[in-house]
Amino acid sequence: MRTRPAPASCSISGTGEHSPEAIAQALVGLIDRVQTESHLNLQPLRLIQVTANLGEAANFWNRALGLPETGVSQQPEGVVAGKHMSWGTSKESARSIIILPDYVAAAIALDAPAATATLIHELGHVHDDFARGLTRGFRPYQTPPHLNDWPGLCSYIAEEMTWSEYAAESIAAGYYTPEELASFERNDGSHLAGVHTRLRQSICKFLQGQVDFASLWSGSVTNLSDLFANLGRAAAHLPFAENQGEARGRLVSPDSEAVCWRSVVERLVGELRTLREKDYSEWGPAPFGRLAEVVVLGFEAAGFFPAYNGNNLHVKVR
Ligand SMILES: [Zn+2]
Question: Into how many domains does the chain fold?
Answer without folding.
Answer: 2
